[in-house]
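Regression test case RT-17, inverse folding.

Input:
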């Protein structure tokens, strides 16, 4: 086997139309599977000294940022593709743009093909085939000559059912790269690299049968791959993601202002959050911290009081504001709780085409949410306590470490300020996470049914989390914090985050929040 192969060409310009909302804000290659972006799975299939040619188009800047921050030692050549959607676009067009970058035998590797095993080295032109997902309508397929070990014919997609064929995985080694480059000018825009093999421009082509290929070009394919890899699971959001690469944690946010604010706040929270080592416009990186998520502990109630005291000592340091800052704080508090709540509710209604109305929730009739919100004691909510705060304080974001605790995924700002926040927001966040625990949601231990204006739902609640609620309530009373306010803010949090999560979890958050808010209003009349 030769060892001079050094290039891998990954076309990643397309919009990923088969993946719907998953690629609304990111490139398909950035979809996270088992804690790594798809493109990182691909890079890890090849030796470290290989050079990667990356074709950028849809959300190309985000892909480039990710690669530069997550794989700093890997050599990349980037090419921007101007036509990646619509008339004139296609894989053939994309590949023509790489003509000046290909300078050695190379691998062509589509950005939606991942494997469990390393890609072998080859001596001659070779196509990777699979006996999985043999469907000549949706995949290009190949007939083989087992005696000679070569491809006898590569077939384009067809409505005819082909027999005794294997699926082309979208991965191929091209030794005769100069022939490939010369062919680029006449290559089919639609078919792309397959046209080279169909017309046998480079002569006879060998094949390699893969038993571990996974196509993640569809939602079903992604779900299959996630199940196959197992490992890390996260609640899906379309605007944020987290990756784990080489003992580093990489956070992504579509909002570059949020990333900048989180980096800034990490300096103020340096004793309680990891140190940010690198950042780009939309990503930041810190070292992986060893510890156990409090969410994964069997009995979090056993350490919860200790956690609250640790937060009191290390995080919740109250701040005395001057008149100017006090005015800013009051304005931001109104915006943070009141304005944002109504904006998010409108966002939910638009997202699901939902109209606020009287509803029966778990057998009890509730008025419109607007009416319930009008009965909230907003002046009490606006009477906030300025302090250093985390901003997303729930058990999924708290690590129990040998030295105490480490807080993850802190909030970027309180309204528009990064200087301070409201301690009640952290307390409300803790309570909302005890009402609806992320691990319970990830494990699908909940259900919700909607029929017209009738909603029924059920969420499994661990006894240890119910005990934590009691501990939090006792802590609030002992420190003269308003339990009514904590519960109200926790309910508002449920409503605020509802449109940010996947269906049906988003609907559970909305109606659970509505139910709790009405209960609190009734109890404190």
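Golden output:
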């Amino acid at each position: 086997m030769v060892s001079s192969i050094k290039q891998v060409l990954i076309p990643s310009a397309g919009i990923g139309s088969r993946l719907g909302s998953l690629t609304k804000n990111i490139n398909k290659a950035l979809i996270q599977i088992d804690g790594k972006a798809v493109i990182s799975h691909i890079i890890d299939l090849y030796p470290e000294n290989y050079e990667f040619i990356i074709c950028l188009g849809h959300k190309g800047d985000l892909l480039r940022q990710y690669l530069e921050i997550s794989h700093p030692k890997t050599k990349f050549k980037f090419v921007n593709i101007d036509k990646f959607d619509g008339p004139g676009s296609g894989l053939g067009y994309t590949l023509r743009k790489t003509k000046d970058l290909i300078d050695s035998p190379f691998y062509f590797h589509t950005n939606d093909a991942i494997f469990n095993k390393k890609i072998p080295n080859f001596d001659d032109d070779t196509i990777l085939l699979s006996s999985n997902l043999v469907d000549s309508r949706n995949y290009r397929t190949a007939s083989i000559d087992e005696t000679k070990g070569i491809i006898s014919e590569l077939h384009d997609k067809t409505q005819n059912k082909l027999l005794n064929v294997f699926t082309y995985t979208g991965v191929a080694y091209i030794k005769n790269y100069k022939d490939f480059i010369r062919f680029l000018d006449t290559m089919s825009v639609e078919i792309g690299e397959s046209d080279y093999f169909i017309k046998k421009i480079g002569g006879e082509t060998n094949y390699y049968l893969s038993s571990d290929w996974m196509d993640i070009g569809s939602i079903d394919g992604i779900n299959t791959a996630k199940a196959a890899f197992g490992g890390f699971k996260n609640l899906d959001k379309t605007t944020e993601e987290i990756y784990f690469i080489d003992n580093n944690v990489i956070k992504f946010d579509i909002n570059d202002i949020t990333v900048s604010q989180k980096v800034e706040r990490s300096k103020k929270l340096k004793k309680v959050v990891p140190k940010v080592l690198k950042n780009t416009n939309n990503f930041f990186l810190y070292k992986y911290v060893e510890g156990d998520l409090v969410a994964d502990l069997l009995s979090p109630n056993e350490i919860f009081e200790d956690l609250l005291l640790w937060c009191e000592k290390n995080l919740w340091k109250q701040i005395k504001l001057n008149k100017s800052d006090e005015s800013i704080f009051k304005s931001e508090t109104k915006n943070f709780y009141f304005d944002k709540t109504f904006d998010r509710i409108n966002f939910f209604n638009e997202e699901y085409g939902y109209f606020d109305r009287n509803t029966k929730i778990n057998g009890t009739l509730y008025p419109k949410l607007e009416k319930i919100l009008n009965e909230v004691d907003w002046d009490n909510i606006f009477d906030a306590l300025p302090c250093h705060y985390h901003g997303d304080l729930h058990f999924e974001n708290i690590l129990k470490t040998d030295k105490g605790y480490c807080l993850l995924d802190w909030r970027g700002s309180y309204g528009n300020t990064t200087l301070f926040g409201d301690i009640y927001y952290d307390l409300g966040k803790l309570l909302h996470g005890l009402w609806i625990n992320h691990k319970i949601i990830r494990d699908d231990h909940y259900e919700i049914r909607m029929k017209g204006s009738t909603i029924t739902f059920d969420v499994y609640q661990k006894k240890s989390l119910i005990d934590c609620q009691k501990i939090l309530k006792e802590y609030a009373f002992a420190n003269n914090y308003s339990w009514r306010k904590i519960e109200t803010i926790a309910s508002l949090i449920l409503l605020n985050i509802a449109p940010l999560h996947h269906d049906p979890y988003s609907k559970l958050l909305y109606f659970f929040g509505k139910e709790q808010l009405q209960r609190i209003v009734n109890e404190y009349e």
